[in-house]
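A reminder from the course coordinator: this example appears on the midterm review sheet, so study it carefully.

Given structure:
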């Protein structure tokens, strides 16, 4: 019997109704699928029922990877690796539709890695991902709210995001102590052009380092006290980080890049 490993944040999805809801979000026939952290393969079974063209799964746990190979044979390709150490662009020469019951302890790290590593040609057409509800709430939050932050801004830069549903702890084995949420992401056709995504990561990191304080200090730190940029964008330096909307952070990042070009 396979036991979930707490160290890997494993909670296996066992609720068939939830699985059906997830695999019915999109038409999967003839799609190339990537599943992250398939565990014992319950969601994988649901995906296979929808007749995809190909299914790749990335599973870090050696025991689970062997179980999946034995259970599904040649119906899927099992990649026994850590997704955080995997180059997504090398997984397939086809665009992938991604499913993931992400380990709670690394879910934000995975999402940020994918956003910041996006190249000209995006390797996925959709992401259907499960997060701890608190994290999902941060991703879909609006500015001027407590949950608004770096993750919100980074995710909404390149992706359109839709909340699908909340999931009870009873849908998992073992039961987590918190609720989960499924989010649907699609790459934006039009987005704010930046030279390097890591500059947006830096701007948001510096601003949200002290989220309850005024932005005057981090602004001066990044722009060497040059007040003209704040005037140009229309920023009140007495504001808090959560008072600035997405577009303002994108514009700040562009100005930061211009200063260094």
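Designed residues:
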């Amino acid at each position: 019997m396979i036991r979930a490993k707490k160290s890997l944040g494993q909670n296996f999805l066992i609720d068939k109704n939830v699985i059906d809801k997830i695999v019915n979000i999109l038409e999967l026939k003839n799609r190339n699928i990537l599943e992250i952290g398939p565990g014992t393969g319950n969601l994988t079974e649901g995906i296979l029922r929808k007749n995809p063209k190909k299914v790749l799964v990335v599973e870090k746990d050696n025991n689970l990877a062997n179980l999946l190979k034995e259970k599904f044979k040649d119906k899927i390709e099992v990649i026994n690796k850590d997704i955080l150490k995997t180059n997504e662009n090398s997984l397939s020469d086809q665009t992938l539709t991604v499913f993931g019951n992400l380990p709670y302890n690394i879910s934000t790290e995975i999402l940020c890695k994918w956003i910041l590593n996006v190249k000209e040609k995006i390797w996925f057409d959709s992401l259907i991902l499960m997060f701890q509800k608190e994290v999902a709430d941060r991703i879909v939050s609006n500015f001027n709210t407590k949950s608004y932050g770096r993750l919100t801004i980074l995710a909404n830069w390149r992706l359109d995001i839709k909340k699908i549903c909340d999931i009870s702890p009873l849908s998992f084995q073992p039961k987590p102590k918190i609720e989960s949420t499924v989010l649907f992401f699609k790459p934006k056709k039009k987005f704010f052009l930046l030279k390097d995504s890591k500059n947006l990561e830096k701007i948001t990191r510096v601003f949200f380092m002290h989220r309850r304080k005024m932005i005057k200090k981090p602004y001066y730190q990044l722009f060497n006290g040059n007040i003209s940029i704040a005037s140009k964008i229309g920023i009140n330096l007495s504001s808090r980080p959560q008072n600035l909307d997405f577009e303002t952070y994108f514009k700040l990042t562009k100005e930061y890049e211009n200063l260094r070009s």
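Residues 203 and 252 are 8 Å apart (CA to CA). The longest strand covers residues 124-132.
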